[in-house]
Design brief:
Largest sheet: 10 strands, mixed
Order of helices and strands: HEEEHEHEHEHEHHEHEHHEH
Number of strands: 10
Number of helices: 11
Distance between the termini: 36 Å
Length: 328
């Protein structure tokens, strides 16, 4: 039999497989989430997230140094306050956990790019992502004011980028106008554009102490059944001035990542969330999977679907796999 086209010719050695590789990953495309808690002397492992830690502003540089040594220089900061109230007022305090942590990081590691999560759920006593109406649902427009105050406080502290994750309508435009009005026209916004009301957030809510005290977030986060709505949300954020758009979670939404990559020319981030991380760690601890290969394969799948940026708790491990030439 005469066979002219043989796909296996480009699989015969690692050298030719690298040459023909369609999806390429770089350490520069990785972002590592970090939790900073108000207080001092804190470095405590998070029970629901093995090998992930709560830091205080005075210890966070220990974790940052490990990242930098691994070649990862971009972080996403989440704050956990000592005091919570109905409106989440600790979110925009000048001496808040995130604000102080940024100062420490910039002083010791000026090359590290600090992105801050802008949301109210970690700061409110009820755990929802904004101000509550009398009917106990989130008041969209009143919440926008607080998001703007929070974003401004982060940028004044030295944040390089802000990332609103609340899913309020119009928040990208509101934050863009607030930043521009104070002369921060150079600060980018990474919008959590297609953020689904997912069960994969469980370990994060334990880590951040942000589980709702009643109800759920389905009235503002997206219905898991919807695809076209995600594209509508992305279009809206692009029109409002977002510089980067995001799909969250990642693995169960690879179809959305792909369609988003076809929809916009903006950089596309995907967030491999706490539940995805926890499942891999649990299965690896039970000896059911090859942890290293699974971490690499899931990362490649997200980039192959169309992501340009990967936010992941496995950033250090992925960087190591790239360094070893096992992925990339």
């Amino acid at each position: 039999m005469e066979i002219l086209s043989r796909a296996r010719r480009l699989r015969t050695s690692e050298a030719v497989r690298e040459l023909a590789r369609e999806t390429r990953i770089s350490k520069t495309s990785l972002v590592y989430p970090m939790f900073v808690r108000e207080g001092s002397g804190i470095k405590e492992e998070i029970p629901s997230l093995a090998n992930q830690y709560h830091y205080s502003p005075d210890t966070i540089c220990e974790g940052v140094k490990e990242l930098v040594d691994a070649g990862v220089t971009k972080i996403l900061l989440f704050g956990i306050p000592a005091h919570k109230d109905e409106i989440g007022s600790s979110a925009w305090q000048e001496d808040g956990a995130v604000q102080k942590a940024i100062g420490e990081i910039k002083k010791n590691f000026p090359q590290v790019y600090c992105i801050t999560d802008v949301c109210m759920c970690e700061y409110t006593s009820h755990g929802h992502c904004g101000v509550l109406c009398e009917c106990t649902t989130v008041d969209n427009d009143k919440t926008l004011e607080l998001l703007c105050k929070t974003a401004l406080s982060h940028v004044r502290a030295g944040a390089d980028m802000v990332a609103p994750s609340d899913m309020m309508d119009g928040r990208v435009l509101a934050i863009r106008r607030a930043l521009d009005a104070e002369g921060y026209t150079h600060i980018p916004i990474m919008a959590y554009s297609a953020k689904y009301a997912s069960a994969f957030y469980g370990p994060f809510r334990d880590a951040a102490g942000s589980a709702p005290s009643f109800g759920d977030r389905r009235s503002y986060q997206m219905d898991i059944h919807n695809r076209k709505e995600a594209l509508k949300e992305i279009d809206s954020d692009v029109a409002e001035g977002a510089d980067i758009v995001m799909v969250k979670p990642a693995l169960s939404y690879l179809d959305i990542i792909f369609q988003a990559s076809q929809r916009t020319n903006l950089p596309l981030a995907a967030y491999s969330v706490s539940g995805e991380y926890a499942m891999i760690e649990a299965a690896a601890s039970a000896g059911l999977i090859d942890r290293e290969r699974i971490i690499g394969e899931t990362a490649v799948s997200i980039f192959r679907a169309g992501a340009d940026i990967l936010i992941t708790y496995h950033a250090k491990e992925i960087a190591d796999l790239i360094e070893k030439g096992k992925i990339g």
